[in-house]
């Protein structure tokens, strides 16, 4: 193959990666540039190797089309990895004694989640390039340690009422005129798991009451809240995987599914709050 044939083949590979409207101009410019470079001591193959792979050269002439914008890559990876982890964790919580069966159910969900993410991020990148251009920075509202005391007190009251209902839901259903049997706790649950969960719920009430009283977040309160949330998630996971919670099977299945969903949402919220606290700490240091 002659020098001109090598250059023509190289130029063809470059312009094949470019939009049609650019190909003729780039082909002329690149061919002339390579011929000028060839006047030196290098042979054609050495020159082309040093000049770069055709894909790299094509990227110099036009912005490469990215399925996911570089600015979104970190967020995409966090959502993809975090979502996959949460889905697998949810499957393990609902089928703790048959992880292989749980994986058969969760893997299609994970792949579907990844597909949704890719489509969403690719669509956002396409829209941004076509209509809005590069993303503009917008300042976020400043972080505040203050707490709405009225709202927090109302939340504590609702939390306390919910805790009272959970102590004996069968009695509450009976008082409301509903059948109490489907809401009776299993005797095994009442031995250890129930009291442990109730203790953690009471500790949570005490923590939220303290927060409503002080009216602001402090670093010890943040740390205590994060640790308490992790303990609650661990205790709930243990409670729903160690045996039945309710004697009635339908109520037990529904409760465990709801508990698994609460655990996953809480873990996602904990990750978000931990990241926010880390950023705030780095700014303060």
From TrEMBL:
Entry keyword annotation includes Transmembrane: yes
Record keywords, A-Z: Membrane, Transmembrane, Transmembrane helix
TM region positions: 76-95, 107-127, 154-176, 196-214, 226-249, 255-272
Stated name of the protein: Uncharacterized protein
Species per Swiss-Prot/TrEMBL record: Catenuloplanes atrovinosus
